[in-house]
Write a structure and sequence with these properties.
CATH superfamily of the largest domain: HUPs
Helix content: 25-40%
CATH architecture of the largest domain: 3-Layer(aba) Sandwich
CATH topology of the largest domain: Rossmann fold
Number of strands: 11
Number of domains: 2
Distance between the termini: 80 Å
Radius of gyration: 30 Å
């Protein structure tokens, strides 16, 4: 008989678009995170496993964790950290909470940035299999430690995958509908202890390279000496001058370099 497996579901509490972050009344998790929680609960039921709900953020993140406890999660862990962390740092913080979990389930997007990159960063740090952007998860395969999933591809296509454990999954909101918590469970979740852990020291990530379109260097041109404004404008724009044609020159390397530098100075690209 297979031993029970540990499952971790990662949740993120965010404010709804257009609502201030400080107003917790309108905060919640995305439909994808709700589907991730339901997927983790069903996987635990089929494998006799346990579900740990994890979140990175301030005290307000405990709202999402208590909802997970009310729905059936066995434990809740909050890493005390600022809410505005990039995806790579969130995955680094979650690495210590996930530990030796057999399955990590995440939503494929959140309600704020919606980049969906945390699961990929987390799978990289854990060095385990990953299946992202799933539209279906077959729960029956968990007893054999093999999950059969369906992944969305571009152009309306689908990809069938067999994912070995341990693994990281990210699911879309259509995968499952979160069960409704009972009144007794919801009341009990209000006073359930949440394991609050200090965040690890922030890592220094390299700045993201900014790619911009090519823009040629500004040319340095002599000031026109003619006092007439129209003549000065014609000289600056060269509107009436004839276009120059290319010239083929055969020179030795040293002479060719000197010719190039001289031409760049004449054209105004070098001082």
């Amino acid at each position: 008989m297979n031993s029970p497996i540990d499952i971790v579901v990662c949740l993120k509490l965010t404010a709804r678009p257009g609502v201030a972050d400080a107003d917790e009344r309108f905060a919640g998790v995305s439909p994808a995170d709700q589907a991730a929680l339901e997927t983790a609960l069903v996987l635990a039921e089929h494998s006799r496993g346990s579900v740990t709900a994890a979140a990175v953020g301030p005290v307000a993140a405990e709202l999402a964790l208590r909802e997970a406890l009310a729905c059936g999660a066995h434990r809740a862990v909050r890493l005390d950290a600022p809410s505005a962390l990039d995806s790579a740092e969130v995955a680094r913080q979650l690495e210590g909470v996930v530990g030796d979990a057999a399955i990590v389930v995440c939503g494929d997007y959140s309600l704020d940035r919606g980049s969906g990159s945390v699961p990929a960063f987390l799978a990289h740090r854990l060095r385990c299999a990953q299946a992202l952007g799933l539209v279906s998860v077959d729960h029956t395969g968990v007893v054999d430690r093999m999950l059969h999933v369906v992944r969305r591809l571009d152009g309306g296509r689908r990809e069938l995958l067999t994912v070995p454990l341990p693994c990281v999954l990210s699911v879309e909101g259509s995968v499952a509908r979160l069960r409704r918590a009972g009144l007794r469970d919801a009341l009990a979740a209000r006073t359930t202890n949440i394991d609050v852990r200090p965040s690890a020291p922030m890592a220094a990530h390299a700045a993201t390279a900014v790619v911009t379109p090519y823009r040629p260097r500004a040319r340095t041109m002599m000031s026109p000496g003619d006092p007439d404004p129209l003549a000065r404008l014609r000289a600056l724009t060269d509107a009436t001058g004839s276009s120059t044609r290319g010239e083929t020159v055969a020179l030795e390397p040293g002479e060719a370099a000197e010719r190039i530098l001289r031409s760049l100075r004449e054209w105004g690209y070098l001082d």
